[in-house]
Amino acid sequence: MNDLQSNHTQQLWKAFIESGKLTSDHLSPIVEASWRRCYAAGVDPYDGCSHSILSARDLEQLLRERAELTKIALPIMQELNRYVAGSGFLVMLTNERGYIMEVLGTPETLEQARKINFIKGAAWGEQEVGTNAIGTVLQEKIPLQISSYEHYCQRHHVWTCSAAPIFNEQKQIIGVLNMSGPSPEAHQHTLGMVVSAATAIMFELRLHAQNQEIIRISERMHNVFMSISDGVMIIDQEGRIVQLNPVAENLLGRSSREMEEQLCTTVFPELKKMGELLRSGQEINYLETFLQGFSGTISCIISVQPFWNEDGSVNGGVLIFNPLKKLRSLVNRISGAHASFTFQDIIGQNPKLLEAVQTSRLAADKRSNILLQGESGTGKELFAQAIHNASSRRHGPFVALNCGAIPRELLGSELFGYVDGAFTGARKGGRTGKFELASGGTLFLDEIGEMPLGKQVSLLRAVQEKEITRIGDDKVIPVDVRIICATNKDLRAEVEKGNFRQDLYYRLNVIRIKLPALRERPEDIPLQFNYFLEQTSMKMEMPVPQVEPAVLGCLCRYDWPGNVRELQNVVERMINISNGREITLNHLPQEIMQDQRHPLEKTSKAVLTEKSAGKYRQQQKLMQSQQEKQELEHLLEIYGGNITRIAQAKGVSRNTIYRRMRRHGMEL
Q1: Nearest to 148 by CA among 20, 265, 52, 11
Q2: Same-domain pairing of 367 and 508
Q3: What is the pLDDT of residues 147-163, one digit of tens each?
Q4: Distance between CA atoms of 221 and 227, rounded to whole angstroms?
Q5: Are residues 84 and 97 in the same domain?
Q6: Which domain holds residue 265?
């Protein structure tokens, strides 16, 4: 600003602070707008000294909050201060509200600034000190230079100030960089220097934010790498091991540092051309191979994904591997290859049934094979699942196969699996058999008596050797399987007829358990009926219906050729057709009603079943009485013997509570 301009601006300033009006339009529109804001806000034009100064504690808090900005800006401010050293200029940094956070300058200049509180912690917005570069930049959000008489306050007329805003990546002002000095030293290039310095600060802020984001991403990736449940191996372009995650270390029995620089073929012998595959950029997806681990050879599934450089070349890759046993266990859980029933689910009091349960419990923790024999529907798979769940293999898979439901030409592939291309129509990639899927758990072979003689030879070898070979392959696979078989045939008679191999029979018939038919245990029919009635109603989300007494008598007189399975189906049918109302004789299936038309032939059994039903009703009454007594004891303890409160809780009278207590011989 030359002398003529300076004098003209001085005259405008004097006229404006006296009248609030401008006598000329030669003033900068930005300065004019600022003066008008200051005049309207009542800023004292003869003061110019900041009176809004942070306490030492508040300044410390501000500096902590803006530590990142100050740390990045300070080196650039120091460079700018060295450039103007000796010229009487100050370099300062403020936050987005105009509070000064850092000031650099000579002692003499700092002392001059102190006279108007141009110091750290002071606010230099327009409302505090009038038109100035810092406050006006915060208003206009653009770089500005305010010189001499352009300042609203008279005490600033000896200063010239150049300031530029500092924006974050969201385009929000987070600070202002300002350089102030004697007004005769004002130059346009001063503002250019400040703008360049502010631009450099913003660049460094963006670079710092990007670096921090890279660090965060790197930390997240490291955490994923260290916590992932798969074995992970990072390899270079030659196939050498760079790093292992903890799962891989456990499987190999060696640390990442010990394995560093070794070729991955030392642990995966079949991957002889890994380096060549990587350099070609070829991926490997779900390849079945072997791992030489600390506990010996382990069957694994591996996948390899190359790492690419920007120029399109491969600089390494990631190898992910999992033991087949682990994957099969996962598949079995998802596909339902697990046992749901326990011995608690076996309902009945018949001595023959209890003997079968006792033998099964004793056999559960043994390693010997078990043969379950009984008619269809007697609960052979229920027993098999209960045995599995009571054994040390309960955390392993429970895989079931009905030998009578699989076509004989497919039975071998179901049991032992096959490799890719083993036969016409074979699934691409091959298939895992039931023996491998059941490894570590139990294989339940239902209807074993239906197995063709030709397949019995292969089964015998698998049972004896504890290893199998997939169809179309020559690789021997060890399997750790406990066999439970079931049949509704007399296998000894089948051996004599030549329908079943004698050597296989003796291998499977180590522990034989005979399950009684339902007609052989009529006293259990009411128990089974009541159990199915409650369970089925619960599954159908219906209340348990009332049952006409005559219904239970009919059920007890029926022969149940389909055994427990037939009874369960009958109960479900009756609940459905009664639609939640009382079950009567009209709801019984026709075959059961027809079976009631020969009373003379069923007299002895009817007497037995009626006695059983009566015994069941007595048991139910005794159980209800015990429950009532336990409930009373519990309430007496909760309410401290207060009969009134107990009666209120039960919704009955006090006399009723006393009567029930006397019935059970209870006293206060």
Answers
A1: 11
A2: yes
A3: 999 999 999 999 999 99
A4: 10
A5: yes
A6: 232-328
